[in-house]
Specification:
CATH topology of the largest domain: D-Maltodextrin-Binding Protein, domain 2
Strand order of the largest sheet: 4-3-5-12-6
Radius of gyration: 28 Å
Helix content: 40-55%
Number of domains: 3
Distance between the termini: 61 Å
Number of strands: 12
CATH superfamily of the largest domain: Periplasmic binding protein-like II
CATH architecture of the largest domain: 3-Layer(aba) Sandwich
Largest sheet: 5 strands, mixed
Strand content: 15-25%
Length: about 325
């Protein structure tokens, strides 16, 4: 496969003539005819046939030329990627749907104002994150899972030869906009007061193969008597989730707040009322961790991202202690 020869053949197609293409390419006509014969022999097809107004591609030739154009375009992109900022920071992160991981990511980005980099950040299910790290499509993975599934997750990580470093644990919490009327009722939040409000739900496990509402039907949501809720909005967009919360009296269900959540998002988190906690305790907290392949040298940018995760949400960051001191954040 010779990309230059493919470019020559594309030029023949553009010109409709070998002689005209040879002039534009500054090569001889016999040489260009030789390239055409050798390519047809190599791939076992006839690329051009003679028509009334010159040579035209055959059906198989048209497919060959279209695919050649795609290959040439990909090759140009390949060269560009490695030529520009060849020494740039490169980082690939796959994460469960969680604001804490993206918050650490944004803090890292903001610290690199004068540093060239190419970063990739994707959100997906826990199993997909694990698979991304295992197959080296991601340098670092961030996962959130219920505590009662810890053994199963650890078994999967061990099977994939991945290492997990825990960050924080979180109970289930509600969240709403700053100034929401419910914040005045937290000391006596009865079922009647809670269920007068509507909910917006963002899935913890997004997948194309499940019915829309079943994506949201995890243990956490079983804490709510949904037959008492008038309106529920199901979203698969974090931006829409935040917009609905910020611009209405809808409530959401999540975890303890990320740092500076009120200042950056105008969103407040608050704990479950006492009458819901016995049921919530049955399922336990959520566990967060970052994962990576065992026995490899992580890229410099991946190590830097881990530093931000540890600094703001790690066991020694004081994050859990700060959250526990505040009734609502």
């Amino acid at each position: 496969m010779n990309l230059q020869n493919m470019e020559y053949l594309i030029e023949i197609s553009n010109c409709g003539s070998i002689s005209a293409a040879a002039k534009r390419l500054f090569v001889t006509q016999p040489y260009l005819s030789k390239v055409l014969r050798e390519t047809e022999k190599e791939y076992g097809l006839t690329i051009f046939t003679r028509g009334k107004n010159g040579i035209i591609p055959t059906e198989s030739g048209r497919l060959f030329l279209d695919m050649s154009r795609d290959l040439i375009e990909h090759a140009k992109h390949f060269k560009t990627t490695f030529k520009e900022h060849s020494e740039a920071y490169r980082l690939r992160v796959s994460s469960s749907s969680c604001s804490h991981a993206s918050d650490a990511f944004i803090r890292m980005v903001n610290s690199l104002a004068d540093t060239p980099f190419r970063f990739f950040y994707r959100e997906m299910t826990v199993n997909e994150v694990i698979e991304d790290v295992y197959t080296n499509r991601a340098d670092i993975g961030f996962i959130i899972y219920p505590a009662h599934k810890a053994d199963k997750i650890q078994e999967l990580l061990t099977f994939r030869h991945l290492e997990a470093r825990p960050l924080f644990q979180s109970p289930t919490q509600f969240f709403c906009r700053v100034g929401h009327p419910i914040l005045k009722e937290l000391d006596n939040l009865t079922p009647e007061k809670l269920y007068q409000y509507n909910f917006v739900l963002y899935p913890s496990e997004s997948t194309k193969t499940r019915a829309a509402e079943s994506v949201y039907n995890d243990e956490t949501l079983q804490l709510i008597h949904w037959n008492r809720i008038s309106q529920v909005i199901y979203v698969n967009s974090r931006a829409l989730l935040h917009n609905v919360i910020q611009r209405s009296d809808y409530l959401g269900i999540g975890m303890i707040p990320m740092r500076e959540q009120v200042e950056n998002y105008n969103i407040v988190s608050f704990p479950l009322p006492d009458w819901m906690r016995p049921e919530a305790d049955r399922y336990g907290d959520f566990i967060s961790a970052y994962i990576f392949q065992k026995g490899i040298q992580l890229p410099k940018a991946a190590r830097a991202y881990i530093t931000f995760l540890e600094q703001f949400y790690g066991p020694d960051s004081g994050y859990e202690e700060e959250c526990s001191k505040n009734k609502s954040l």
